[in-house]
Amino acid sequence: MRAGRRSAWLLSLEPARMENRNQACELWRCHGALGGHRLVTHRQCLQTFECVQLKVPIIQQLYHWDCGLACSRMVLQYLDHLDNDEFQKAIQELRLTKSIWTIDLAYLMRHFGVKHKFCTQTLGVDKGYKNQSFYRKHFDTEENRVNQLFAQAKASKVLVEKCTVTVQDIQKHLSQGHVAIVLVNAVLLLCDLCSSPVKYCCFLPIGQKCFCRNPDYQGHFIVLCGYNTASGSIYYNNPAYADRTCCTSIRNFEEARRSYGTDEDILFIYTDS
């Protein structure tokens, strides 16, 4: 990145006045690569920024199965909606188990009144997953539960849409200060910043033994928090870690999120909730 260009103002994009998120001409604070900051309008952000990195809090998962819940906590804290007691209460009320699907996270966002849109390629459970080792253990018990959640989504005011999402759609969403939770194949997702021994098992905290049983697919949720069009990169928070924001190429990100087993699930979260 060269100094003197508009794209030099790129390191982070955050609302300058959180209470005015609903205003049409909201002011945003852009922190520059060379230091300092400036206030710009929402419209200017969309027109000028080649790179965005949102300050989404990093919250580490506690177990091998709760990456989706950790991602939800990051998003809720980013929106100033997180209350630990209320979060635990919501988990109980929604009867969330150790088998967390993207539709569960959509219902969780709805519970907290967060504006969202869940985009997927499959409205329900793909029966082909029954033979995948990642899904096999809980498939029979989960199939009916998950299909029922999809069937009741509209009545429950959970927005679900079968559609294809492009990288450009994601970048536009992030450029407006919004975030997204994405289901990826962790076996394929390679962080450019993490050390080699760790990045191939990025869904576990450092030092813990890898629990991979299948070399082809391991579902994992991450939070998208930025991009750099000049370098072709995507920034994301990996709940496996408590101390870093990860970065990968758009090509690798696309491979990981479009892998068979993900249904290309992406949960868009909006700040104007």
From TrEMBL:
Pfam families: Guanylate_cyc_2. InterPro entries: GUCD1 (IPR018616). It comes from the Eukaryota. This is Guanylyl cyclase domain containing 1. It comes from Meleagris gallopavo (Wild turkey).
